[in-house]
Design a protein that fits this description.
- With 249 residues, this protein is an all-alpha fold.
- Helix 2 crosses helix 6 and helix 4 crosses helix 6.
- It starts with 6 loop residues before the first helix and ends with a helix.
């Protein structure tokens, strides 16, 4: 071994594979995080609208994916999307769609990986939002109902502003996790087809453990850590600023 200074960092920034990995990381994180926040919020509002035995049973069922390891969830989805016996493939056959490529095509690989991620982690957002809805005060909603406020007015001016702390927590946790996602992508295609899903985590793994170039792999992980730290710190700072202004009023 020999000391190389910042040579590995310079080499990383000159590699097209690095910029491709950055793009895949950002794209995957954006698609999964936005989808999970929106779906989690929508489903939580629906199941909290009526408190009956059906909604309580639905809450339990929706939390089930959180108890499944991401790799196991990926194997389950591989079976469901199998072109011979997969239940999702048979469902698409009803609409005249046969042999959907799923993870075997560069054009649909990201969609398939994101679909698994959304199935596994949307319940996390649902749990947070449901807890937030149950903790909201009742009097503002009763006043809005007496004054004839529409459901959209109530959601826009009461529910959503008061749920912001819970949505911020979900956003920070899911964004950080999706940017460093490894298990789902590795179990699904190992970064393929080709380099379609080679994000920063998988690229670092290949360099470090497949090619035993740990010096070249380290900058990828450190770069990912710096990006996650900056984004999460910015989100937390913005939220604290909003809370300070709100308390000042």
């Amino acid at each position: 071994m020999r000391f190389t200074g910042l040579a590995n960092w310079g080499e990383m920034f000159r590699e097209p594979a690095f910029w491709h990995a950055v793009w895949v990381t950002v794209k995957y994180a954006f698609v999964t995080t936005v989808s999970e926040i929106l779906l989690g919020l929508g489903i939580a509002l629906l199941i909290c609208k009526k408190d009956n035995s059906f909604s309580r049973a639905l809450k339990v069922l929706l939390v089930f994916p959180l108890m499944v390891a991401p790799v196991i969830a990926t194997i389950i989805w591989q079976l469901m999307t199998n072109t011979s016996v997969g239940i999702l493939e048979k469902f698409l056959n009803l609409f005249g769609v046969y042999g959907f490529p799923w993870a075997s095509s560069p054009s649909t690989a990201l969609f398939t990986a994101a679909l698994i991620d959304i199935w596994v982690y949307t319940p996390f957002v649902i749990v947070l939002v449901v807890a937030g809805i149950n903790s909201l005060p009742k009097s503002p909603f009763e006043s809005a109902q007496i004054d004839g406020g529409s459901p959209w007015f109530t959601f826009k001016n009461l529910t959503l502003p008061m749920l912001k702390p819970f949505l911020y927590i979900a956003l920070i946790f899911r964004l950080m996790a999706s940017m460093q996602e490894y298990g789902i992508i590795f179990a699904l295609t190992k970064g393929g087809p080709g380099d379609t899903l080679m994000n920063l985590s998988l690229t670092a793994y290949n360099k470090g453990f497949a090619f035993l170039k740990f010096g070249e792999a380290m900058p990828y992980i450190l770069f990912l850590w710096v990006i996650i730290y900056i984004i999460s710190k910015k989100l937390v700072s913005n939220w604290l600023l909003v809370q300070k202004k709100a308390s000042g009023r």
